[in-house]
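Hey,

Quick one before I head out. I ran the complex with zinc ion overnight. Inputs first:
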Amino acid sequence: MSFLIKGVSVLGKGKADLLIRDGVIAEGGAGNAQVIDADGLVALPGLVDLHTHLREPGREDAETVETGSRAAALGGYTAVCAMANTSPVADTAGVVEQVYRLGREAGLVDVQPIGAVTVGLAGERLAELGAMATSAAQVRIFSDDGHCVADPRLMRRALEYVKAFDGVIAQHAEEPRLTEGAQMHEGEVATRLGLTGWPAVAEEAIIARDVLLAEHVGSRLHVCHVSTAGSVEVLRHAKARGVKVTAEVTPHHLLLTDERATSYDPVFKVNPPLRTAADVEALRAALREGVIDIVATDHAPHAVEDKECEWGYARPGMLGLETALSVVLDALGSSAGGAGAGGAGVDWDLIAERMSRAPARIAGLTEHGRDIAPGAPANLTLVDPAARRRIDPGESASRSRNTPYAGMTLPGRVMATFLRGEATVLDGKAVK
Ligand SMILES: NC(=O)N[C@@H](CC(=O)O)C(=O)O
Ligand SMILES: [Zn+2]
Ligand SMILES: [Zn+2]
């Protein structure tokens, strides 16, 4: 199968024809390639998500590897890293290999399993990190996400252990003693609503500790879902000292604030919680500047009974894969004076760096996040920057419906996605 993508603007610059053949960006005659009219479309390297919850094994009613992969492809992704908080937990070679195999079978994106740091995410003893690293899934990222590796000695040992194979520990930074019973961001809104607060310092204290630990042992640390202005300052300081730390921000923390909780709609309940407008501004600036390296979705599907209940009982987490690029275009566009018609003013190279190249580098996914040039694997996505779409939860390819953007109109639309030269999305629709 080959494709000729006609008149596409690669990273928003100029116009070119792209030939895809035998899984790579090719040169030469188009032959009998299927022609795609890409007038007005922007080509980006396929997006890479470093933080996705696929819920399989264990909660296939909320998401499966296949449904989550389809949502990812529709969002422009060609690779996702699947978090370990499944049931059973992905803390053995057997479970990570199962998730890896399910991803290959679905064939919609490359699914790279993340291994748990501790057995059962219990924070008591290290999981079989080496066995997961040498398994068929070749795990390089380890995380207890959903839980913080709170014990500093365990965190130190995990950081030391993964150094041998250039692995990285992705930390969910939340000091558990400071967030007992927490329901939302600790601040004015929480006081008004009478909900227990999740203070910014619970995140910042763990990041500060962990960058010092990473510096001490010379290992790589990745910080999940950074949500506060104070965390940005800690990261800035660590990076200036040369600590090997990278960080992510979610689309929702770039767009939404704790004011959303006034609706008491649990769709806005998430960990870490939605913060203040000042935090949102700081996160946007940090992402532009590079203090925050990447956008990661933290796509967290939940079944209806876990979300459509009282706030206090609802599980934290929200969908993200299908809306991430649009939210980022909206968030980065608006404070830069507004993305113009047809995406004028969008820094596409920055989008490619923060949503494809840098996450691919952190995860060690060498086939992704490559320049769109002859010989490179044809992992790419075509975006219509002029489109605007109203988000309808019923249209989601995810098995869950907990999108916080329902009814909002967002810029940009993914029109096509290619994984190793095979179309996974065409005309804005999933191919299989
Ligand atoms: N983000 C969330 O609120 N929830 C995540 C876990 C996590 O990312 O901490 C989940 O697994 O549902
Ligand atoms: Zn988390
Ligand atoms: Zn998560």
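The pocket of zinc ion (ligand 3) is lined by residues 51, 53, 83, 145, 298, 300 (CB under 6 Å).

Talk tomorrow,
K.
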